[in-house]
Amino acid sequence: MTDIDFKSFKAQPLDYKNQRNQRLYRLLFGWMTVLLILPVLIILVLLTAKGAPALSWEFFTADPINGMTEGGIFPCLIGTIWIVAVALFASVPLGVACAVYLSEYAPDNTLTRLINLAIINLAGVPSIVHALFGVGAFVMFFDLGTSILAAGLTLAVMTMPVVIVSTRESLQAVPQAFREACWSLGATRSQTIRKVVIPNSVTGILTGVILEVSRTVGETAPIMFTGAALFLPFVPDNFFERLSSQTMAMSLHLFTVSTQVPNVPEELPFGVALVLIGMVLVLNSVSIAFRMYLRGQKKW
Amino acid sequence: MAATTATEKLKVRDLTIRYGDTVALNGASFEVYENEIFGVIGPANSGKTSFLRAINRMDEMTSNMHVSGEVLFNGKDVSHWRNLYALRSRIGVVFPLPVGLPMSIYENVAFAPKLRGVRGAELDEIVERCLTRAALWDEVKDRLKSLGSLLSGGQQQRLTIARALSQEPELLLLDEFSIAVDPVTTMRIEDVLKELKEEMTIILVTNLVQQARRLADRTAFFLNGEVVEVGDTAELFTRNAQDQRTTDYVEGRFG
Ligand SMILES: Nc1ncnc2c1ncn2[C@@H]1O[C@H](COP(=O)(O)OP(=O)(O)OP(=O)(O)O)[C@@H](O)[C@H]1O
Ligand SMILES: [Mg+2]
Q1: What's CA B95's distance to the chain center, in Å?
Q2: Which of A183, A195, A299 is closest, CB to CB, to B88?
């Protein structure tokens, strides 16, 4: 037997230093996280505290009255839902189709890469630029006037790149080996997409889409010049008339009551903001629920 | 074996496969006869998998893969097939890493027959027959509805064998099928392969030199993208191999 140097099993100074570093880093990153969450928490708490008194059944169902200093937000709520619905129906089918083409059909060449780059850049264009594009294209060139349709389409153009990017990511998360296995069984590209690729990415696609839509709920600039009105409680019943009319919207109403109108009771703008955030939260919760469902369904 | 009198199922002429600048297979020429088991042996990176991918035209789906030369399947160059899906449906493939499609065990095996339009009782029958042949039926017959991708590695491998058989292929390409399968099951599948060659032609790529020796009628030895030798298995495995490198490899002196 050789002599064993038992000292070498003892904790050495280096280990103590490592432990100290570990603790330091955990503390550092932990506090950074707290710093990040704190403002969000403060906003939520303040909003709830100041806005909750404004909430009532009437707040959701009545028109604004008395120079928007009293009454409810009903037309704004409905208007936002309409605009977002138009944006959804216009951007999702097109965006998903485009992503399927780019991910499953397009050859991997310079042109495809350029298109991908363009889409990513498009996603970064400021919303005010989209707003001006919407005025030029939908309001004036296609002669839709300032209307729900024009506003919804402007939002659709704005969200499309993000829908494409998130859908493509979900599609590409499906392992290539599944596609090859499918092809070698004699399936066509479209059969492979329908039977293997889409069923295994649909939850991811939906999650992304809902997240993107929830972002558009609060957008103000793109709808301000294209379809949103400051004060317009009256809305036509006819579907097509409604689409081609202007509307009130939550985001713009918030701007109006907090800066444009005198003598507004303090809780009113906070109430509007609270409802707006609530709408976003509901959509995000749906998206998170989908994601959890997706985890449960994970098939590989 | 009187192989020369048999019909040619596959004829390879000057086949060269490139990935960008990498040459995976260089100027291969040989033929594979109907109803034989054709073994392909060779160390890693010798181009065995690439050869199989060229047969069922996976190059069409792989952006950087380029194939030149001829691969005649039933006398017709695979690059001239207009309907690649018809070509692929006649060729069964088993991948080295088992790929259970993310659907039920039943659906995995029923996938290809369904593409052909088979339904109902006939479908059930095909699924049972193929799973039985792949030595998997007894283990999964009570849970056909559970996910194929959640089976163990060896079970998934047998599932992919069953799936390939469900195509009722003329040509079966096996790429290291026994990688994840235990020795006893491997033996069972090997017995099945011997029966299957009555119905189809089998190309067996294997890293287990002894497996080629047990099963293959003729064997090709690939080395670094070059086909060193093609011949009767018995001859390759005795000292009658024409190339010293073949003898060295089968006797385990390198590779
Ligand atoms: N998709 C690909 N892109 C680029 N190069 C590839 C690709 N597939 C294979 N190759 C290259 O082609 C060469 C041959 O690979 P191949 O898979 O045919 O070898 P193999 O004989 O099957 O090896 P193994 O026994 O390890 O499976 C290797 O050098 C490999 O790096
Ligand atoms: Mg290989």
Answers
A1: 8
A2: A183
Tell me how far apart the alpha carbons of residues A134 and B207 are, in angstroms, rounded to a whole number: 62
C-alpha A244/C-alpha A275 separation (Å) is 26
The helix/strand/coil state of A22 is helix
pLDDT per residue over B127-149, tens digit each?
999 999 988 999 998 989 888 88
Q: Does domain B1-89+200-255 have CATH number 3.90.1150.10?
A: no
A132 inside domain: yes
* Residue pLDDT, tens place only, B173-220: 999 988 888 888 888 889 889 988 899 999 999 988 889 999 999 999
Residue A218 pLDDT grade (very low, low, confident, very high; cuts 50, 70, 90): confident
Q: Nearest Cα to B100, choosing from B160, B177, B141, B174?
A: B160
Do A149 and A36 reside in the same domain of the chain?
no
CB of B206 sitting under 6 A from ligand 1:
no
Q: Are residues A96 and A27 in the same domain?
A: no
Say whether pLDDT at A118 is over 60.
yes
In Å, the largest CA–CA distance within chain B is 56
Residue range A39-67, pLDDT digits in tens: 989 999 999 999 888 888 888 888 887 77
List strand residue ranges (DSSP E) for A51-183, in order. 64-65, 70-71
Rounded to two decimals, the pTM is 0.82
**Residues A164, A15 share a domain:** no
Quote the percentage of chain B above a pLDDT of 70. 96
Residues A262 and A226 in one domain: yes
Contacts for B163 with CB less than 8 Å, ≥ 6 apart = A181, A185, B101, B108, B109, B111, B112, B130
Question: Which domain range does residue A125 map to?
Answer: 55-296
Distance from CA of B147 to the nearest CA of A (A): 7
Nearest ligand to the C-alpha atom of residue B48 = 1
- pLDDT at position A71 over 60: yes
The reply to whether A5 falls in a domain is no
As beta bridge partners, residue B141 has none
Cα distance from B12 to chain A (closest Cα, Å)?
20
Looking at the structure, do residues A114 and A259 belong to the same domain, yes or no? yes
Domain co-membership, A26 together with A135: no
- CA gap A233, A62 in Å, rounded: 9
Please name the residue ranges forming H helices in chain B: 48-55, 84-89, 105-115, 120-133, 137-140, 153-166, 183-196, 209-215, 233-237, 244-250
Domain count, chain A: 2
The verdict on a CB contact (< 8 Å) between B102 and A300 is: yes
If one compares B48 and B157, the residue with the highest pLDDT of the two is B48
Please give the full DSSP string across B114-177, using - where no structure is assigned. Answer: HHTT--HHHHHHHHHHHHHHTT-HHHHTT-TTSBGGGS-HHHHHHHHHHHHHHT--SEEEEEST
The reply to whether A1 falls in a domain is no
pLDDT of residue A8: 65
Residue of chain A with shortest Cα separation from B110: A185
Query: Which tokens hold the place of A104?
Result: 């499953």
Whether residue B146 has its Cβ less than 6 Å from ligand 1? no
Place of tokens 């099963």: B215
Which residue ranges make up each domain of chain B?
Answer: 1-89+200-255, 91-168
